Task: inverse folding
């Protein structure tokens, strides 16, 4: 009890001192307060306690916090010069994924006390040509697609961040201040493999969507996920020879979009060799569509459900819910937030020098398909039709 009272007293003193320094002129608006670690050491409390007490002052308007930068005295209000632009594909191609990225982008910009503008590239160019766009503090080009260089040439001369699409190892960085945000596919492959190893699996296969010749191409992310799988298997002392399966040719691109129905078909054909190896107890599929193709190959081979391997996929698609598939979710909102962080850091001198690549970690969602050979049926014809 005495210890609790002592800590409670320190919390009161911490809050009182911070409030007093912010209001009596010791600190002026815009000053950065000491870090949570410094305050924790000074007042003899944990970093968690300091964070909680600082949040109280933020809610009161005494302080404001800028993510990844620090906590400052006073409220933060948007200024007319603080605008961030996000370029997206045309309205016709706007997907739920893009909407998630946009939400993350707008939330982070708002947290910085700035304003955001989200529009297709052609619309942005039209407004810019008429002199209707404000001066931007940074531009996030989520509309970029390999082979279309106009995005990078057309934006204003301000900090620029691109999303490294699934179709290329990296986007062209033709400016010293062009940075990239992408998912960490290698780490995703590592997470999936470590998860299956913890469950006791040793013969873990990888079902890829990239070509047999290891071509990066449009399926560079599949290659990277396989690299993560291979790294962990070798670190655990397991031979990977004969456990990676690739199509002879990658699924084709249809009008700047990957053909998901064809991905399933290609994965099913590739998995026919995999399902003949009864020693394989678990499979990491390049994505959830590849996992669905694997399931079709298992049914096609008339392998009883109880002998199906454990499976981990990527994307956490709603189409796989009938299989209760273990999958790595891609947190698209974090892509938008990380893009803003890069822009803010570049604009304010926190980030200087060569182009940077910031990777967003995937989140593994463990379900029964990775714990035991268990699944439920689904209407494959209806599923294929919905993907077409």
Result:
């Amino acid at each position: 009890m005495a210890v609790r009272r002592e800590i409670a007293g320190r919390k009161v003193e911490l809050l009182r001192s911070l409030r007093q320094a912010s209001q009596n002129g010791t600190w002026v608006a815009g000053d950065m307060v000491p870090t949570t670690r410094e305050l924790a050491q000074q007042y003899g409390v944990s970093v968690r306690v300091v964070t909680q007490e600082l949040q109280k002052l933020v809610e009161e308007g005494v302080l404001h916090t800028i993510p990844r930068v620090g906590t400052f005295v006073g409220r933060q209000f948007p200024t007319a010069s603080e605008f961030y632009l996000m370029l997206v594909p045309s309205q016709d191609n706007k997907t739920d994924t893009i909407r998630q990225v946009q939400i993350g982008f707008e939330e982070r910009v708002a947290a910085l006390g700035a304003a955001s503008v989200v529009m297709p590239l052609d619309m942005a160019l039209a407004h810019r040509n008429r002199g209707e766009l404000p001066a931007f503090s940074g531009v996030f080009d989520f509309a970029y697609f390999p082979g279309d260089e106009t995005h990078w040439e057309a934006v204003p001369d301000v900090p620029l961040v691109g999303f490294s699409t699934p179709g290329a190892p990296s986007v062209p960085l033709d400016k010293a201040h062009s940075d990239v945000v992408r998912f960490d596919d290698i780490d995703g492959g590592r997470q999936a493999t470590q998860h299956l190893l913890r469950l006791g699996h040793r013969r873990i296969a990888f079902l890829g969507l990239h070509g047999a010749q290891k071509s990066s191409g449009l399926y560079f992310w599949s290659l990277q996920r396989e690299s993560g799988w291979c790294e962990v298997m070798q670190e655990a002392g397991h031979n990977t020879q004969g456990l990676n399966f690739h199509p002879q040719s990658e699924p084709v691109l249809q009008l700047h979009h990957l053909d998901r129905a064809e991905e399933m078909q290609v994965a099913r054909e590739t998995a026919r060799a995999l399902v003949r190896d009864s020693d394989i107890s678990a499979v990491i599929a390049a994505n959830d569509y590849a996992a669905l193709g694997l399931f079709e190959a298992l049914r096609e081979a008339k392998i009883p459900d109880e002998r199906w391997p454990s499976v981990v996929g990527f994307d956490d698609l709603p189409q796989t819910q009938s299989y209760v598939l273990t999958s790595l979710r891609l947190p698209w909102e974090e892509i938008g937030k990380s893009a803003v962080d890069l822009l803010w850091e570049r604009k304010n001198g926190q980030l200087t020098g060569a182009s940077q690549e910031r990777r967003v970690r995937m989140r593994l969602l463990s379900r029964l398909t990775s714990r035991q050979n268990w699944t439920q049926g689904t209407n494959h014809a209806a599923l294929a039709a919905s993907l077409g």
Notes: Residues 351 and 375 are 48 Å apart (CA to CA).
